[in-house]
């Protein structure tokens, strides 16, 4: 590199670093990316009310991909039964165009999710979790839903549409109800994502999932295998073991890791 070029690089760096330090000095760390965390990284923020007294579920769906109202009603009911939110839990729908073609990776879900988030997941005293309903399928095409960080999940409705049972049981609506509660269950840290349960209910072949087929956290719920539930009803609620874990996390009797708050 010539001496002349070298100076140009130094000048640019000096300019960049001075403007960076100026912004950081005035506005804190706005220029640094916010930590996205791992699924379960905001479970205490949901389970407790000492900081976040209300909660918003942001539903970002593409045109024609708005979820059944039974799915979001059920999710609200399930969250209200485990999270302490004295000022309430509400659902906010936004129609968006993700501008994505081809299959989705976990990183795609993270990137598009954060582009569309209305505010930070921790917005004053409001905790905001986000559910994307994009068109298209996940790269592993049997996957119905994914949880990709502490505040972001996605459900793949095109795949869910094909996951109903051969005789319409469970129905597409049943499957969507269950998968939505299941993915948000991962944001609550289930099963053993950010703690170690004293109860042996994690499926040894499917880490992060329940071994109880009556729990919504049962491993088969997020895969196209759900059609196997034809002879029973598809679970859409947490079981006693899941609830015991969440109660232990809430009251501090169960040790927790990887939290973005507190
Ligand atoms: Zn799962």
Keywords:
262 residues; alpha/beta; Collagenase (Catalytic Domain); six-stranded mixed sheet; 6 strands; 33% helix
Question: What can you tell me about this protein's structure?
Answer:
The chain has 262 residues and is an alpha/beta fold. The protein folds into 2 domains: 1-32; 37-251, Collagenase (Catalytic Domain) (3-Layer(aba) Sandwich), CATH 3.40.390.10. The chain is 33% helix and 12% strand. The chain has 7 helices and 6 strands. It has helices at residues 3-27, 43-47, 69-82, 106-116, 157-160, 172-187, 240-251; strands at 54-61, 89-95, 122-123, 126-133, 145-147, 152-155. Strands 1, 2, 3, 4, 5 and 6 form a 6-stranded mixed beta sheet that branches. A hairpin with a 4-residue loop joins strand 5 and strand 6. The radius of gyration is 21 Å and the shape is globular. The relative contact order is 0.16. Mean pLDDT is 88; it is low at 9-30. The structure holds zinc ion. Zinc ion (ZN) is lined by residues 182, 186, 209, 222.
Give a short summary of the structure:
This protein is of the alpha/beta class and 262 residues long. Helices cover 33% and strands 12% of the residues. The longest helix is centred in the first third of the chain and has 25 residues, at 3-27.
Q: What is the CA–CA distance across the termini? A: 49 Å
CATH topology of the largest domain: Collagenase (Catalytic Domain)
Q: How much strand content do the residues show?
A: 5-15%
Rounded Rg? 21 Å
Tally of individual domains: 2
CATH architecture of the largest domain: 3-Layer(aba) Sandwich
Written as H for each helix and E for each strand, in order along the chain, the element string is HHEHEHEEEEHHH
Low-confidence stretches: 9-30
**Briefly, what CATH class of the largest domain?**
Alpha Beta
Main sheet, how many strands, which sense, barrel?
6 strands, mixed
CATH superfamily of the largest domain: Collagenase (Catalytic Domain)
Number of helices: 7
Give the proportion of residues in helices: 25-40%
Strand elements, count: 6
- Gross morphology is globular
Structural class: alpha/beta
């Amino acid at each position: 590199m010539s001496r002349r070029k070298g100076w140009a690089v130094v000048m640019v760096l000096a300019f960049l670093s001075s403007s960076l330090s100026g912004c950081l000095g005035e506005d804190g760390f706005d220029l640094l990316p916010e930590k996205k965390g791992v699924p379960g990284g905001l479970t205490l923020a949901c389970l407790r009310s000492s900081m976040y007294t209300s909660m918003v579920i942001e539903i970002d769906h593409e045109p024609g991909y708005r979820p059944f109202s039974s799915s979001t009603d059920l999710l609200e009911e399930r969250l209200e039964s485990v999270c302490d939110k004295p000022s309430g839990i509400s659902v906010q729908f936004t129609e968006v165009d993700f501008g994505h073609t081809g299959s989705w990776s976990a990183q795609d879900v993270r990137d598009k999710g954060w582009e569309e988030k209305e505010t930070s997941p921790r917005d004053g005293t409001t905790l905001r979790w986000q559910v994307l309903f994009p068109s298209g399928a996940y790269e592993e095409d049997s996957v119905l839903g994914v949880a990709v960080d502490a505040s972001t999940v996605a459900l793949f409705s095109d795949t869910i549409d094909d996951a109903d049972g051969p005789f319409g049981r469970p129905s597409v609506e049943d499957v969507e109800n269950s998968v939505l509660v299941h993915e948000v269950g991962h944001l609550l840290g289930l099963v053993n994502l950010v703690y170690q349960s004293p109860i042996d209910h994690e499926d040894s072949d499917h880490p992060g999932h329940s071994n109880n087929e009556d729990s919504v956290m049962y491993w088969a719920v997020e895969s196209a295998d759900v059609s196997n539930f034809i002879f029973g009803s598809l679970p859409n609620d947490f079981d006693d073991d899941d609830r015991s874990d969440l109660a232990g996390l809430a009251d501090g009797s169960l040790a927790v890791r990887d939290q973005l708050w507190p």
